[in-house]
Amino acid sequence: MFKELDPILHSQLRLAVMSLLISVKEADFIFIKEKTNATAGNLSVQVQKLKEAGYIEVTKVFRDNYPNTTCKITPEGVNAFEAYVKVLQEYLQIKQP
Question: Which Gene3D superfamilies does the record cross-reference, listed alphabetically (predicted)?
Fold first, then answer.
């Protein structure tokens, strides 16, 4: 009947991160943390899960002696996000009796 929603993207925080990155393509950790109202620890765990799934690339560098983590959506991440949205739209088109 319906395809299953991607469990990686079905997490509220991971979906929020992907929604941000789909529009800006790349963002630093602090920006994502502020926009999602997540704690640094929770966001770090969820970013790692997205990275392991191949949905984002994570780059860590030092700027002015401070660590800077940047997240960038991958082509695989774009495809997964678009597929997730399509399946969600199918669910929303269910006709009620």
Answer: Winged helix-like DNA-binding domain superfamily/Winged helix DNA-binding domain
